[in-house]
Design a protein that fits this description.
This protein is of the alpha/beta class. It folds into three domains: 8-171 and 234-286, Rossmann fold (3-Layer(aba) Sandwich); 305-458, Rossmann fold (3-Layer(aba) Sandwich); 481-603, Rossmann fold (3-Layer(aba) Sandwich). Helix content is 41%, strand content 14%. The protein has 23 helices and 19 strands. Helix 18 links the parallel strand 12 and strand 13 (455-458). The protein is globular, with a radius of gyration of 27 Å.
């Protein structure tokens, strides 16, 4: 959609149409809602002033980029948002030339902008290209942002950073004054005056420098941008993020400054949808819902693994004051919000700062507390060095509770929790185990509570796969549980939620199989595996994890080290590729991992 020639009035109508389309599709498909509604005018203004076909448009996390998708020839396809083989819920260059970079984790945008600006300078394209970054105030809590700003302020590459602030509250009188001053500070008169003043001061010595600096500092203090100005980055704002006319004017001025600029825009989460307007976390990411009432369209009768985790941790915290915990900006998603409310001095949301979460919990463990570091599997990747350097090297008893392990469905490649076993298994002092159902989860948490070394347990998004297998026994270090035993040559080895998939597959087979709940992938139950090798020669491994470095890999390493021969090991883990987004069942079907597909492979 070409909006360059559109008037402000026409652009405002386009914003209304965009919001209607976002609400229609997200209410049907689910997705990110409040932030993307709030960013609509900002994105329309970006497309009015800049050109996404040549200017790198970089969206932090990119969950707020739906309006960008609609403005870049994806209106007809938008109905397929987050569906299997449909549009991704995040920016994706393979989907459109207007998407500069894959994004799904936060706080990477300014670093990408700096890299793009360096490339543009090296190619002598600064007169016709400029990176445009949109970042939310939540993403500004991560340290990577300040690493990038530090270099940007030093090197002064031209870049426009739009700070989409939908949380901070600024009083109206101060806001109005700031908007007036910011517009003036962005204009050519102020910039020329500032340059002439700098030249004048250079000619009149130290006293003039002192007076000029004090005057400039006094002016900066009227706005909240002094930190950015001190870093060498021009600051404009705060501005009304829903005032299209002002946004277009200010972005044009920022573009013309030819140096790094932050435009601080205030927006309202859920703008245009009364039920979602404001700061309710539940409207950040939603499943399908009824537009009129706002009520969820899907009701699950099964208890989710996250709910079980909350209940188990609440029980531990009630009976042991040494139990503490942290999450990185996901209190509701990880189930920690209830504990933060009940025990506000023992459970914390540390913001989008996984590295800090891991290291701070390690210090608490050093002081004799029992920390539960509760993070999505895909987000722990961001704290990997800290797990090695600050937890495992010190052999500290931090529990890493990894939610969303396995396929997470519609969020896709950036969020699939498939790598944690592979990257944690390599670390000395780390113990890895997984529950398979509600009772075993409580037992796993009891084990983790008493264990005096680093450990990690993983569990799926949604519910565990239900079975009628024998009841779980208490967890003991490196002890598996044989759930079904017979004289068949086939052994199914399940890990975590993989036990349920093994069970469902076994029910479809024409032959009997034995089923082992592995429980621990590090350390392995070597005694049990040696016994199984005497009876069963075909082992099939079921786990919601990457094949490379995963559960079957650990078993094969053991067989090789123990010089056990004659065992055929087949892994039903994920192959070496990133897994696309879509309904989880459809994604698993595309990977050939549905029980009926696996049963055919085994029967053959």
């Amino acid at each position: 959609m070409n909006i360059k020639s559109k008037s402000i009035e026409e652009l405002e109508e386009i914003c209304k149409d965009i919001r209607k389309e976002i609400l229609r599709v997200v209410s049907k498909n689910g997705g990110h809602l409040s932030s993307t509604l709030g960013a609509t005018e900002l994105i329309v203004a970006m497309h009015k002033v800049f050109d996404s076909s040549k200017d790198p448009f970089i969206f932090d996390v990119s969950h707020q980029s739906y309006a960008h998708k609609l403005l870049t020839d994806r209106w007809e396809a938008f109905d397929t948002l987050r569906e299997f083989n449909g549009l991704c819920g995040y920016t994706k260059p393979s989907e459109s030339e207007h998407d500069y970079f894959v994004a799904g984790h936060s706080s990477t945008s300014i670093s990408l902008g700096v890299g793009a600006a360096k490339a543009i300078a090296l190619k002598n394209e600064q007169k016709r290209r400029i990176p445009v970054v949109m970042i939310g105030d939540g993403s500004m809590t991560a340290g990577m942002v300040y690493e990038a700003l530090n270099e940007l302020g030093d090197r002064k590459y031209p870049m426009v950073i739009i700070l989409n602030d939908n949380e901070m509250s600024i009083a109206k009188p101060i806001g109005a004054l700031s908007r007036m001053l910011s517009s003036a500070m962005a204009g050519p008169f102020y910039q020329k005056f500032k340059k002439h003043t700098e030249n004048f001061v250079d000619n009149f010595g130290e006293g003039a420098h002192y007076i000029a600096k004090k005057m400039e500092e006094s002016l900066k203090l009227i706005t909240p941008g002094i930190m950015f100005e001190e870093m060498g980055i021009s600051y404009i704002g705060p501005v009304d993020g829903h005032d299209l006319k002002s946004l277009v004017e200010i972005l044009q001025k920022a573009k013309n400054l030819n140096r790094p600029v932050i435009v601080h825009a205030q927006t309202l989460k859920g703008k245009g949808y009364d039920i979602a307007e404001g700061h309710e976390e539940k409207w950040h990411g939603v499943g399908p819902f009824d537009l009129d009432s706002g009520n969820s369209s899907k009701k699950s009768s099964s208890k989710s693994a996250t709910q079980i985790y909350t209940e188990a941790l609440m029980h531990l915290a009630k009976n042991d004051e040494k139990v503490v915990g942290a999450t990185a900006a996901m209190p509701s998603g990880t189930g920690l919000s209830e504990l933060m409310e009940k025990y506000p001095n023992r459970f914390w949301d540390v913001a989008i700062a996984e590295q800090h979460a891991v290291t701070s919990m390690s210090a608490l463990a050093k002081e004799g507390f029992k920390p539960f570091c509760t993070i999505y599997s895909t987000f722990l990747q961001r704290g990997y060095d800290q797990v090695i350097h600050d937890t495992c090297l010190m052999d500290l008893p931090v529990v890493f509770a990894l939610d969303r392990a396995g396929i997470v469905g519609e969020d896709g490649e950036t969020h699939q929790g498939v790598f944690d076993i592979s990257f944690l298994r390599a670390i000395p002092n780390m113990t890895l185990f997984a529950p398979r159902d509600e009772k075993s989860f409580h037992q796993a948490m009891a084990f983790a509570h008493k264990y005096q070394h680093p450990c990690s347990l993983r569990y799926p998004r949604g519910s565990f796969i239900e079975t009628d297998l024998p009841e779980s026994q208490p967890f003991e270090l490196a002890k598996s549980q044989l759930l079904r035993s017979n004289e068949s040559e086939i052994l199914f080895i399940g890990y975590g939620n993989g036990v349920g998939r093994a069970y469902k597959t076994a029910k479809l087979l024409e032959k009997e199989v034995s089923i082992l709940d592995l429980r621990f992938v590090k350390p392995l139950d070597k005694e049990m595996l040696r016994e199984m090798a005497k009876k069963h020669k075909k082992w099939f491994v079921f786990s919601d994890s990457a094949k490379m470095g995963g559960v079957a890999s650990a078993i094969l390493e053991f067989l090789a080290e123990d010089k056990i021969q004659g065992i055929e090991v087949v892994s039903f883990e994920y192959t070496d590729k990133f897994i696309t987004h879509g309904n989880t069942k459809l994604v698993e079907e595309s990977l050939g991992l549905l029980p009926e597909q696996l049963a055919k492979k085994i029967n053959f």
